[in-house]
Design a protein that fits this description.
By secondary structure, the protein is of the alpha/beta class. The chain has ten helices and 14 strands.
Length: 303
């Protein structure tokens, strides 16, 4: 069975590269347009697979054209789809994303669709119990909580991509081993005014093995209950930042599966995310492991 399984959002994105952020009630010609798979856990699984780690998605996809696209996109990148349930007559989770060339910005408008929530079946439960790592993102919360309980009972770990401040996430945070919140989530959830204080409060409240805060262009930090360590961003000529956080989490998971310690995982994930940002598309721009290794050595860090 797959080394990593994931439960969370799976989104069909329409990416529009535009010169600048559009003014309301005007027309603008896009520099380019394309369709791509998205979603925090879904893209994280693709990143892990592209980096050489076996991965599978557990979830519900629509029988519509967007759902078909998402299923084929997983298969294209080597993510297992045998645990995906297809449901006809529902609208997929979709989004339209403006990628502003002037400031390398990203603006997203999404429609969550109307798919029913994931209810774990026996095959999915078995796969979760056999996995080494479960990736979650706060979507499909009830199923994610059940899955987190199962994987931990079997000796696996839970990596939580904490991005959305959804109601009830405390239930999932309490079952998390590797907690990776954005700076916005960390400070928003804790009420702290710095990411360092927020990381410590999250650790003291939920007792994970580690808290790793991602802080955009400033890099980030990790806190393991004893020490706080910062990690940098790696140099990149940014073309498309969409999905960079999702890729970071997937790369961190892949690093864990390779036996890297938490600090090395931070550097590895930061480097993978930087390389991804130099191409268009969150998934197709994820490099393979040897490319990352060479890139890190060129920038003074050896794996």
């Amino acid at each position: 069975m797959s080394y990593i399984v994931g439960i969370g959002a799976c989104v069909k994105d329409t990416l529009l590269q535009v010169p600048d952020y559009p003014t309301e009630d005007t027309k603008m010609r896009a520099l380019s347009s394309r369709e791509a798979g998205g979603g925090p856990v879904a893209t994280g699984l693709v990143a892990a697979a592209r980096l050489g780690t076996e991965a599978a998605y557990i979830g519900v996809l629509s029988g519509d054209s967007a759902g078909e696209f998402l299923l084929r996109d997983f298969e294209k990148y080597g993510v297992g789809t045998g645990l995906v349930e297809r449901r006809s007559g529902y609208r997929s989770f979709t989004s339209v994303i403006w990628l502003g060339a002037k400031n390398a910005s990203r603006t997203c408008v999404f429609d969550k669709g109307d798919l029913p929530p994931l209810t774990l079946n026996e095959a999915q439960k078995k796969a979760i119990a056999e996995a080494a790592l479960l990736m979650v993102d706060g979507n499909e919360l009830d199923a994610a909580v059940e899955a987190a309980t199962l994987v931990r009972k079997s000796g696996g770990r839970v990596l939580y991509d904490c991005g959305g401040l959804y109601p009830g996430v405390e239930r999932l945070l309490a079952l998390t081993d590797i907690m990776i919140p954005s700076a916005e989530f960390a400070m928003g959830h804790t009420g702290c005014d710095s990411i360092e204080a927020a990381a410590k409060k999250l650790f003291d409240t939920y007792h994970p093995a580690v808290v790793v805060v991602t802080d955009g262009k400033r890099g980030g930090l990790l806190y393991d209950g004893e020490k706080t360590v910062t990690y940098p961003i790696y140099p990149a000529n940014v073309v498309d930042s969409n999905g960079s956080g999702d890729v970071f989490h997937g790369a961190f998971a892949a690093g864990l599966c390779r036996g890297f310690d938490f600090e090395k995982c931070c550097h590895f994930a930061s480097a993978v995310s930087a390389i991804k940002c130099m191409g268009v598309g969150a998934r197709e721009s994820v490099p393979d492991f040897s490319t990352v290794q060479n890139y890190m050595e060129e920038n003074g860090y050896e794996l």
